Fold:
Amino acid sequence: MIILDKSQKRKFKQAYKDVYWDTKDFLTKKEKEYLKHWIREAIVTEKMQLLRFELHPVLYRLHTAKIIIEDMNLKRSGFISLMLLEVVLSDTLSIKKVKEDLGDEVATILTGLVKTRELYQKSPVIESENFRNLLLSFAEDMRVILIMIADRVNLMRAINNHPNDVERKRTANEAAYLYAPLAHKLGLYKLKSELEDMSLKYLQREMYQDIKEKLNETKAKRDAYIKNFIHPIKTKLEKEGLKFSIKGRTKSIYSIWNKMVRQQTPFERIFDLFAIRIILDTPYEREKQECWQAYSICTDMYMPNPNRLRDWLSVPKSNGYESLHTTVMGPEGRWVEIQIRTQRMDEVAERGVAAHWRYKGVKGETGLDEWLTSMREALENQESDIDPNENGREVMDQFKMDLYEDEVFVFTPKGDLYKLAKGATVLDFAFRIHSRLGCQCTGAIVNNKHAQLKQVLQSGDQVEILTSGTQQPKRDWLNIVSTSKAKTKIRQAIKELSARYVAFGKEEIERKFKNRKIEYDDKAMMRLIKKMNRKTVTEFYQDIGEGTISVNEVFDQYLKIQAQLANPQTDQNRTADNYNVTANSFPEDEEGHIKEDVLVIDNELKGIDFTLSKCCNPIYGDDVFGFVTINEGIKIHRSDCPNAPQLREKYGYRIVPARWAGKSTGKTYPINLRIIGQDDIGIVTNITSLINKEPGVSLRSINVDSNDGLFSGTLTVMVTSQAMLKALIKKIKGVKGIKQVMR
Structure:
C-alpha cells in the first residue's frame, strides 16, 4: 500500500484544502464522494502504484488539478477526469463504468488521456512537430492536451531536487521540445515560460544560476531605472486625466539566455531585459484616441525609433490582438520597449489568443487564432446548456482543417500515420517510410486503386507501397518528388549505385588483365580513357559497370595504345595535352573523424565513426549527444550547443545518447574563447603570456577590438580536455581587467 510520510501528509492536507475550495462551485457532494471512494479503493487494493520519480499519485494529481483550475479554467469534467486517471490506469475502474456514472464528457476526456499516454509510452522520441499533431489528432477533446501540459508543468516543479539527473534531463528535454511549444500554440504563455525556464535550469544549471544571480544583482538598479523612466510619463498621464496602470515586466531567464546565444553576446550586453506596459481604463469608443494620446505623451518624453513602431490599433492582427508598441531611447542611452493598450485589449491578449508569440515574429501557425478564441469560449461555457461533446467536435474539426492546410496525413495499411508536406507524391511517401522501400518503389495502391509514382497524395489516403527487387533509383525521380528528404535519399542512392558500378567495372578490367596475363600500364589506360571521351576514371569504370562500354572493346583498344607507346615514332605528333586526365578516386574519409578519443554512442556502442560538430566544437569531457545526419553519419554536439534546442524540437527522433569513455595521449581540440574586459595597457600581453605558460595549451590565433574603454577579443586555443579548458578560463578570468570569458 502507498503510504504518505509526515512531510507528504502536510502537503496532502494543504493541497486537498486548496482544491476543495477551488471545486466548491462546480463539484457536487455526490461527485466528491465518488472520487474519494474510487481513489481509496485503488490504494487499499494496492493497484495504484507510485508514479515516475517515486511521486505519490494522489498528491501529484491534486497539484496538477490546481494548475488546470487556476491557469486553464478547467472545471468539473477536466478535474474529475484528471483525478480518476490513475484509478482507471490501475484497472480499478473502467471507462465504461465512468460513462454510466458521470456521463459522456468525462469518459471522452479519460479515453483521450489513456490513449495519449499509450501513444507517448509507445514512441516518445518521434519527431516532435509530428508528435504534437498526433496528440492533437488523438485527443477528441482539447482538454486532454491542456491536462497533459499542466501535468508536465507539475512534474517539472516536483523533480527539482530529485537525485536522478539523467532522467531529469530527459524530462526537461521533452518539456522544451514538446510541451513548451504546445503551450505556446495554445496561448498559455505563463506556463510556456515556466517550462522553458525550468528546462534550462535542469539542462544547463550553471548558466541558469549565472543569469538568475546577475538578474538579482542588477534588480535594484533595474527597478530604479524603471521607476526613473516611468515617473515623467506617469505624471503627464495623470495630468491629462487618463486612468491607467503602468508596470515594468522583466523577461524570462530562458528568453535572456536565448538572446545571448543567438546574438553571441554576454549578459552585460543584453540591454532590453524588460518592457514597459501601459494599460488604460477607458470606454470602448475612446480606446484608440486615448492610446494614441498616451503614445504622444511617451514620445514627447523620449525619442522614438521610427522603425520600431507597431500599430495594431488601426489594423488589428488577424487574431484580434490590438496594441501600440514603440521603442524609445531612455536615460543612459538605453532602448526601452513600451506597449500601450486598454484593459479590454489586455484581457484579449492575456486570455491566450496567440498574441504574444505572433508579434514576436513566429509564423506558420495558420488558422490557430480563431480556433483559440473559440476554444477558450468553449472551455468557459462548458457547463452551459450547449452539448459539450458536439461543441468540442466542431471546434476540433475546424482546428484540424486550419492547422493542417499545408500538410497531409497519410496512413499505411496497418494504420500507422505519417505527416508529409502538401504536394507530396507516392514516391515521397515511400522514402518517408524507409530509404530501401523508396529505392525499390514501382507504384502504390492508394485507397484500393493502383497509382503511379508521381500521384499526389491527399490527407486521409491509405497507401500501400508496391516494390520490385530489380527496381533502382533513377535521376528523373528528382522531378517527381517534392520533399527534401526524398530528394536527398535519391541523390544518395544514385551516388551509392554509381560507386557500386565503379567498383564492379574496375574489378572486371582487373580480372580481364589477370586472365590474359597482360601487365596493367597507367599511362596506356589514361590515354585510352581520353580516347573514349570519358572525363574521369570514375566515369570510365562506371560505364563499364553499367554495360555502356564493353570490356572486350576496352581490352582491344588498350592493346593498340600499348603497342603505340612501345613504338614512339608512330606517336610523335601527340602533345602533352593529350595526357591530361582527371583521376578521381573515391571520397576520402570525412575530415574531422576522431578515432583517438573514445565515445560510447547510444549507451553501449563503441568504435563508431563520428564527427565533432563545428557549430559548438565539443571536446573531451564535455556533456555531449549524438545527432544522426542524413549523409554525414553521427555528429557530436555539446548539450549546450546553440543548435541543440532546434535539433531536439524538430528532429528528436534522431538524437542518440553519447558520452566520453576514453582519452588518448596528445589529442588536442581547437576552442574559440570570447573575452571582454577593460582596455588597459598590457592586458593582451598578460593574457597571451598566461596562455603560453600553460602546459599542454597552445595559442593558435588572437583577434582584439577596442571601443569606448572596453576591448573584446576572440582567442583560438588548443586544449586536450574540458578540464584543461575550465582551468584555463579560470586563470584568464583572474587577469586584472577581465570582465567576461565565454566559450
Remarks:
- The chain has 26 helices and 20 strands.
- The CA atoms of residues 398 and 673 lie 51 Å apart.
